[in-house]
Amino acid sequence: MENPSQETRTALLKAALVCFAEHGFDGTSMRMIADRAKRPLSLLAHHFGNKEGLYVEVFRMILGNNFSERGLPMTMDEDWKPRDRAEAIRLLREEVHRMYEDVAPLPANGSEPDLLREYGPSLWLQEMRSTRRELSPLLRQYVGPVLHCWRQVIKCLRPELTDAEVVFLGISIIGMIASHGLMSGLNETAWGDKKPVKNSFQASELLVDLCLNGLINNRTS
Questions:
Q1: Which CATH number goes with the domain that contains 133?
Q2: Do 191 and 137 share a domain, yes or no?
Q3: Which residues contact 120 (CB under 8 A, 6 or more apart)?
Q4: Which of 69, 114, 184, 196 registers the highest number of CB atoms within 10 A of its CB?
Q5: Cα–Cα distance list, 75 to 11, 67, 86, 139, 142 (Å)
Q6: What angle in degrees, to the nearest 10, is found between the helix axes of 115-129 and 4-23?
Q7: Are 115 and 211 part of one and the same domain?
């Protein structure tokens, strides 16, 4: 069980997560967060210093939760690369599934809400559009190894590409996956509410096929 101080810190972080996701960084005040958490405003300064420090800790909570579930190593040797194309394809499939699960909207099931799962993707997608400099060290710690994995996977599958082309494809693939969360409301309105797949696994497999077709089957000579 959490001690009172840790329980208060967790309550403040969860309230901040919801407020930042709903109103953005600039639209959220410390008073708003304290009121939502039903805690004195002074406790925010005590635990986090200022709004920037609180924002960083909210992302530490999001990233720590996501990556603990992934079971991925937090560090990766710079010389690491897939052993062969089969391993590169396996890693690509795993990463597409993980990323899609991170951004896919939660289905309404009537159960108690999981705030991290419900609001984390929304806040994460906001930050992808314009990353605050305060988050740079944290993002390098958590996301850096994943991007290194993507870079080496693409190099293995397309060894003829330049480094700049590898980066462009990596950004394009990640952006494609992220857009499913970022544009979920627009997509439902514009394309209709008929679901093309039964679950997130099947959706991820369609994205895997699209990535592999683009990386392997449609190469120009």
A1: 1.10.357
A2: yes
A3: 17, 21, 62, 65, 66, 102
A4: 184
A5: 30, 12, 22, 13, 8
A6: 50
A7: yes
What are the angstrom distances between the C-alpha of 95 and each of 88, 118, 147?
Answer: 11, 20, 10
Residue 159: both structure tokens together: 């060894």
Q: What is the pLDDT of residues 8-37, one digit of tens each?
A: 999 999 999 999 999 999 999 999 999 999
Mark whether 84 and 43 lie in a shared domain: no
Tell me which DSSP letter residue 38 carries: T
Token match 């899609």: residue?
A: 100
Are 184 and 129 members of one domain? yes
Helix residue ranges, H only, the chain = 4-23, 30-37, 42-48, 51-70, 85-103, 115-129, 136-157, 163-182, 184-191, 200-212
Same domain for 137 and 79? yes
Contact 47, 9 (CB under 8 A): yes
User: What total number of domains does the chain contain?
Assistant: 2
Provide the residue range defining the domain that includes 183.
Answer: 71-217
Residue 61 counted as domain residue? no
Residue 206 and residue 197: Cα distance in Å, rounded? 9
- For residue range 64-112, list pLDDT tens digits in order: 877 765 555 445 677 889 999 999 999 999 999 988 887 776 554 444 4
Q: What is the CA radius of gyration of the chain?
A: 19
